Amino acid sequence: MAPTLHYSKLKVKDHLVTGEYFELAYDSNRDMLRTTPQPDAKELGNYYESDAYISHTDENKGLLSFLYQTIKSYSLKKKLKLILSLQGTTGDLLDIGAGTGDFLKVAKKHHWNVTGVEPNSNARELAGKKTIHLHPGLDSIGDKQYDVVTLWHVLEHLPDLDNTLQKIESLVRPGGSIVIAVPNFKSYDARFYKEYWAAFDAPRHLWHFSKNSMSQLFSEDVEFKNSLPMIFDSFYVSLLSEKYKSGAAFSLHAILIGFWSNVLGMRSKEYSSHIYTFKKVDLSS
Fold first, then answer.
1. 68 vs 223, more confident
2. pLDDT of 72-90, one tens digit each?
């Protein structure tokens, strides 16, 4: 029997920077969790100031970093194939939370017209060395619309969620696609590791989504199309969760938990992370 996660009693630790504790408040109407208290906009950047924050670096020293970078290289090709399948042809692509620019670099090589947003200055600098110019925020990209807007494990980081979702919706052309990848707190690995589950990552993760909450993100002008499992996430997240729980740099037990999470996910459709695809309604067609 799978363990139960009692959301109202969950306190999670910032394992990366400060060691502070945060509570997760459950919103029953939207079936999602909210990190509380949430740092204000000026303080939030301080919680990313760590050399161990992998998505802002190209570092591959250490087992977890090596695994992350290896999986990322494989995933880039899968992501590119996915967005091409959604639109049928290349076009204008906006990646929000572009990190060090690797996805946009690959997309550009395959003839997409790329634009990226990344608030972290160190990550933008690394992207610049790959000839990928990134904007520091959504406010700096203007009102241009795009054929595809992607957020790869980014939505959970964005403050002012509802207004940001409205902005994202406005950036998509009619007939265009939105692709969002986020962790799933209803997965087996989340329920097993509970407060040690690495994908809670408070307070950098401000929001924690379920499949139910993702299907009702946008207005009626944007249709929810599909959800796809991210199979590798359960292994990486379980390894990091086990490190937080027991201090083990590597754990076969964590690998087994990641594997079992995927096995159960085949039946429940609740994987460690999902990619969600959306289509903006084209009233002219």
1. 223
2. 677 898 999 999 999 999 9
Residue 51's pLDDT is 74
Give Cβ neighbours of residue 157 (< 8 Å, ≥ 6 apart): 97, 204, 205, 206
Q: In the structure, what pLDDT confidence band is assigned to residue 244 with cuts at 50, 70 and 90?
A: very high
Please name the helix (run of DSSP H) or strand (run of DSSP E) that holds residue 278, with its range, or none: strand 273-280
pLDDT, residue 4, reads 61
User: Is the residue at 285 inside a domain?
Assistant: no
What is the distance, to the nearest Å, from the Cα of residue 252 to the centroid of all Cα atoms in its chain? Answer: 25
What is the span of the domain harbouring residue 166? 7-280
Neighbouring residues of 93: CB distance < 8 A, sequence distance ≥ 6 = 83, 104, 107, 112, 113, 114, 115, 146, 147, 148, 149, 150
> Is there a domain that residue 1 lies in?
no
Q: What is the number of domains present in the chain?
A: 1
Answer yes or no: is 104 within a domain.
yes
CA separation, residue 143 to residues 58, 167, 168, 171, 193 (Å): 31, 10, 11, 7, 42
Q: CATH no. for residue 221? A: 3.40.50.150
Q: What is the pLDDT of residue 3?
A: 63
SS3 231: coil
